[in-house]
Each structure stands twice: as structure tokens, then as C-alpha cells.
Amino acid sequence: MQLLAIGLYSHDGELRSLRFRAGSLNVISGLSRTGKSELLKIIDFCAGRKTPNLAPGPITNKVAFFAALFQTADGRRVLAVRPQPQGSSVSTAMVAYGRGVDLPPDSSSIEINATAGTVRGALDDLLGLGRYDVEENGGSRERLRASVSHAIQFCLQFQTELISPQHLFHRGDEDVVADDFAELFPYFLGAVDERMVATRREAARLRRRLADAKRRLDRLDARLERDQARDSVLVSEAVERGLIPASDADGEPRVVLADLLKSLPDALGESETDQVETPLAEARSELGEREP
Fold first, then answer.
1. Which of 23, 79, 120, 264 is 20 to 30 A from 95 via CA?
2. Beta strands 143-144 and 134-135: pairing type?
3. What's phi and psi for 217, nearest 5 deg?
């Protein structure tokens, strides 16, 4: 996929375009602080990012719409148009497809018909990235999907990023972006296929589930140990009060207590049974909850 053109539409509807020669190296030169770096942000924004992060100035004051025209080697095209955000971000867009699609001649031809997600989906299809979709259940995101949002980070670099000793790629200083690079870099290099990447992610997901299961088991073991200690103390008290013969106290404490609760009403008078019926019911219920 190659970028064919960038378009800026003023609030009066006029178009100012920058076109590139397909299949060739295109060089943009100019004095410092004349907006060359802003072009990278515009490309990133038109490719589906919700925030352009443009420096306040003529571009943010004069431009109403940004447009980018992309084309593959076989001539398929996608046009993405994004409105200037009124706040910090915007999710709406215009998307057009077709071999003959081009920048609208003025803003009157722009019709918002999509979202930023639609733009990413259209470019994913153009790049053939739409097939890869892997669940990620261990973090705040539900899915990790190889998309144009990742691919474009390997294509854009600001001057400060070129000279940075900390990271190699665009936005590599952002934790989420860096984590995605670590997972997807071999895929974009072609060193692994989609199935292998998906298998790695699935293995990581299963390891997280196993760790969660082990933590739950540890909590249950700790609770069982506390319950067994409590049951042993109750059996000892029952022996001291003559409720259980010492010879019967050597068994499993929970079984000994259950047998005591079953036999206790028979050893009591009617009035005594009425007094202990509610505590006995509660004790039976608690022992029942502990049954395996």
C-alpha cells in the first residue's frame, strides 16, 4: 500500500493537496518549523487515530477536513477523510472505495458516513490484515488485532524518534504500543505466520488461566486448613464436656461433629431440645456447606 495524496480542506471548502508519485521515492524538504512533521500526524490521523495531536497554529485554525488517499500495487484505492476535532478527539470519518476514487474537489463533496474504526477496517482489508484476530483476556483490552494502526507505526518516524536511544519505532515510548510491537513485530517481518502468533497468544492466555486456578486452589486450601483447625478445637471441647467419649474423638473432626449433631437431640429432654434446635440447625447447615 502507498500513500497517493494528502488533502487539506479549508472552512471555505477549498482544497490544498499534496500528491505523491506512485512506485517511487518521494522526498519532502523545507525549512525547520514549516509543518513537515505535521504531515506524519495527519497521515496517522487519517489512518484511523482518534486524536491528531497537531500543534496549535494555522493547520488547526484554518483546516476543516483532512484527507488521505491510499492505493495498493494492483490499483485498489481507499479514501479516508477526517473532520478537524472540535475537542481533543473525533471518531467520525468519510470512507470511499474504488479504483477511480480521488480527493474530493472541495468540501461540499465530503459526506461523513463512517467512523475511525471503519477507516482502520478498510485499510486492513487493503493490506490483507483483517484475518488476524486474537483474544487477550489478561489485560484491560479484550483483543489484540494486527491492524493498520500497528503497521503504520513502522512507517512513520519523527525527527526526535530517529535520534532517540530508547526506542526504534514511532510511539515506541508508549507502553501499550511497545507491548504490541513485542508481540507483532515477528508477524510484520514475515518471520511467523498468523497461526503461530495466534498459538502463542492462546498459550499465554491458558497460562494466565492456570495461574488464576492455582490462586483459587490456594485460597480454598487455606480455608480448609482453618476449618479443620476449628473442628479439632470443637471436638476437644466436646470431649471435655462429656459429649463425646475420648475413644470416639480420633476420627475425622468433621465426621465426629456431624455424628454428635445427629445424636445430640436423643440425649436431651424435650425442653432442652427446643432450646438447642436453632443452634443445631445452624451448625448442621455450616457442616453441610463444607461437604466436598
1. 23
2. antiparallel
3. -65, -40
Among the residue ranges 51-60, 169-178, 275-284, the one predicted with the least confidence is 275-284
For residue 128, is pLDDT > 80?
no
Give dist(CA 279, CA 290) in Å, integer.
17
The mean per-residue pLDDT over the stretch 137-147 comes to 54
In 3D space, the residue among 16, 108, 106 whose CA is nearest the CA of residue 62 turns out to be: 16
Name all contacts of 14-17 with Cβ < 8 Å and 24+ positions apart: 14/106, 14/107, 15/103, 15/104, 15/105, 15/106, 15/107, 17/103
Reported as a single tens digit per residue, the pLDDT across 22-64 is 888 898 888 887 788 899 899 999 999 888 889 888 999 999 9
